[in-house]
Amino acid sequence: PSRQVLQNVTSRWGVLVLLLVGSLGALGLVALGGWWVARKALRPVDAMTTRADRIGIDDLSQRIEAPRVEDEVGHLATTLNAMLDRLQEGVATRERLIADASHELRSPLAAMRAELDVSLRHDALDDDARRVLESVRDEVVRMGRIVDDLLTLARVDAGRLELLVTPQDLRRIAERVAGAARHEAEAAGVRLAVAGP
Fold it and tell me: pTM for the whole thing?
């Protein structure tokens, strides 16, 4: 009888070990299968993410390829492409606005500068009037530079700017800037000085 009890206990332990090993094996297979299914299901999302990373503000014409199936991933691709369409249109509108505004501002500024130059050539101006007209002319010239800078930015955005790199004398540039701001600086009690080689 004790031998039979021992055999029963041993066979039960064997069954338990087999069940435990089988369960762990089945669990491992299920986990491996789940990982494979998840990886396969997320592959289109990974491809879309990689593609979206490559799309930059300088080239918004690229689009994300939508999967053939109509599911959440396809809807995500469609939504991202619609967002890229809106971004591209917004950038194009901004570039057109900057270019149009710059072109429209150039003519009146040129006319104002010409009228100011003619007025300043008139000898009958008193010192205060001449100082005011010179200050206004300087502001018109400054605004003209800003408009030119806006046009340059519009050309950069449109990819139509050709850079001409030339050496510059920084001291001369600093002296020119200081000279343009000298009148306002003196009026504010500030003394401007340019130093260096």
Answer: 0.48
